[in-house]
């Protein structure tokens, strides 16, 4: 899973591409953990995620629950992410606005 992490002041912007599954969550965790520090804001762009399984959802829940960071935001949810959240009943759990683009509605 290609992961793009951009650090700026007290914020981390993460762009995930391809899948967020049992086969890739450890790679995501390992890439991110070295950048975590108290008070940092994390923004995770999910627009390029093509597949999500329960391991991926568990990692998103764990990331959202981190006490060391100030705020974790998920944005630009892909259709695969929206479908996984709805199927699991977790749509409202993250307190993030889910914007459905016209491309996703098809």
From TrEMBL:
This is Chemotaxis locus antisigma factor antogonist. InterPro entries: MlaB-like_STAS, MlaB_ABC_Transporter, STAS_dom, STAS_dom_sf. It comes from Shewanella oneidensis (strain ATCC 700550 / JCM 31522 / CIP 106686 / LMG 19005 / NCIMB 14063 / MR-1). PANTHER family: BLR2341 PROTEIN. It holds the Pfam family STAS_2. Residues 1-63 form the STAS domain. PROSITE patterns: STAS. Gene3D superfamilies: STAS domain (3.30.750.24).
